[in-house]
Amino acid sequence: MPLSSKISVAILGATGAVGTELRELLQSRNFPVAQLKLLASPRSAGRHLSFQGEDVLVEAVSENSFKNVDLVLASAGGSTSKAWAATAVESGAAVIDNSSAFRLNPEVPLVIPEVNPEAAATHQGIIANPNCTTILMAMAVWPLHQVQPVQRIIAATYQSASGAGARAMEEVKTQAKAILQGETPPTESFPYPLAFNLFPHNSPLNEQGYCQEEMKMVNETRKIFKAPQLRISATCVRVPVLRAHSEAINLEFTEPMPVAKARELLANAPGVRLVEDWQANYFPMPIDASGRDEVLVGRIRQDLSHPRSLELWLSGDQIRKGAALNAVQIAELLVARNWLKPTAVAVSH
Ligand code: A2P
Known about the structure:
The protein is 28% helix and 25% strand. The protein is an alpha/beta fold. It has two domains: 7-130 and 323-336, 3-Layer(aba) Sandwich (Rossmann fold); 133-318, Dihydrodipicolinate Reductase, domain 2 (2-Layer Sandwich). The mean pLDDT is 96.
């Protein structure tokens, strides 16, 4: 496909938090959209959302939704992706899927453009967008890992409400108002009130006591880095922040990594912004990361307890680089490299 060609794009989950950001990014990044279809559940059918100054009808996804569509950006949950991805691929579209449905499928590339862009070349119709906490962590770890291999990662996350969708974000505001008025806060999206509270991520637990979100960080990072032996342990926590996640990360290297070297590498890493003002005690915060493309990284310091380990801290917009921006960057990669149509031979990742 010539670079100048415009393509027909569908957003599946167009009314959600990530779907809304996908629409905004396609517009602000001048993605070559010939036609945009907005797909959601029957609940939203008939609504209109604006794109490039025009009102676009939201349609309920159906068998016919993907006819003449070149690219589907899906962010409507795992079961919706499982239900519709094959139909979209059979119709000739490439699907960039933001759910966890296909991420660990060996035939499906799991891509962060700054880390493993070449994996996208081998797709057979579906490319998976990694989990948000995984993307943010990988953005900070990969530039270091390439220079000095990391052998163990210990992470603790501070995850915003946006990871649970647009309704969850609204719910935190409603809860805060209710609590301030002395009322019982409503809890629908989460099992417990999140306003003025926090709790370990409420995804299902495995028999070792790790939740699904924590295991995503383990398994997805190993796949993206092509490092099946990489030792990773995470504790994921939901915090009452609206849309940016933060992470405290401890990295054990095979050989010592000087702090100054790590700082230099991260200052020059694509998609990363070093945020450190040691005099002012100013470091990445979700309030500063919200709405930004870059992952903010800072507070890089020698781990006092281990000569080959560093500590660092990051904040990154969960909806943007953690989801929609990464997906649109994959789409840009497919268009730029002429990789939209699947290659003939399947390659495992
Ligand atoms: P709808 O608004 O019609 O429910 P979020 O992650 O912010 O909660 O957004 C989820 C997105 O996925 C919404 O656009 C939602 O549409 C869409 N969605 C949820 N379930 C389905 C479904 N069964 N079929 C199509 N879209 C769905």
